[in-house]
Amino acid sequence: MNMRHEEGIDVSVLDGILDGVLEDLAQRQSEVPLRELQARAADIPPTMDPLPKFREPGVSIIAEVKRKSPSKGALADITDPAGLASEYALGGASAISVLTEQRRFGGSLADLAAVRKAVDIPVLRKDFIVTPYQLWEARVWGADLALLMVVSLPGGQLRDLLGLATEIGLTALVEAHTEDELSRAVDAGAELIGVNARDLTTLNVDRTVLKRLVPQIPEGRVRVAESGVSGPADVADYHQWGADVVLVGEALVRSGDPRSSVGEFIRQATTR
Ligand SMILES: O=C(O)c1ccccc1NCC(=O)[C@H](O)[C@H](O)COP(=O)(O)O
What we know:
globular; binds the ligand O=C(O)c1ccccc1NCC(=O)[C@H](O)[C@H](O)COP(=O)(O)O; 8-stranded parallel barrel; TIM Barrel; two-stranded antiparallel sheet
């Protein structure tokens, strides 16, 4: 059952997640006001730009630290996110994605900080970012990239957050799942555009969404395929359909050998 029913109104999975995200955010904001967070950012080293590596020929992998998810429940008992990220980097990952949402994904900003310290490749804060405060958090806790999901950023919010991300040195991964969302991502000027195979309102996964939407992404923007990879052949398909970068979570955390798996994903996609 992907929709819950509250007081006669259908609330999608994503709305349910966002309710929790906003509650937790209010708590953090009451502990550390925005001004203080901004002051802390002044002491943080400059971010890394992931785009030059993503633009190189071949496929880049963003490997994700993912403990659990709304669609699958518990995925892996990750007690050492930094160690996992190091294995990903040794396998050839171009960046690490860290899910920082706590309630549904079991992640945290502490995971982000631990991964940041452990690797010297760019790190993505993957969360449900809908406020400037969360972008400042991403910067302070060591992210180089931050996810902006078009579906949850109506009106001018997408442009505003994209502008702020750039201003504070973060590269935004702007994520779409439909033609309309993709148009908004392109019009907002996103350089790094993700097409998520997972419909976040229903949790259905359809990898071919990338194949259908990729012609709509202008030349020169970096194209990221997100979700739904179960093995090397899926990465190779995504790359063949036009993805420069593939973001993989579940298949890597369940693989038992994350370093070799990343290497194998890259090898098979580039030799097909
Ligand atoms: O993974 C979920 O079930 C999920 C549900 C609702 C919102 C977001 C969700 N996942 C976030 C992601 O985008 C994925 O973690 C990421 O793309 C990797 O996906 P996968 O390789 O399929 O684990």
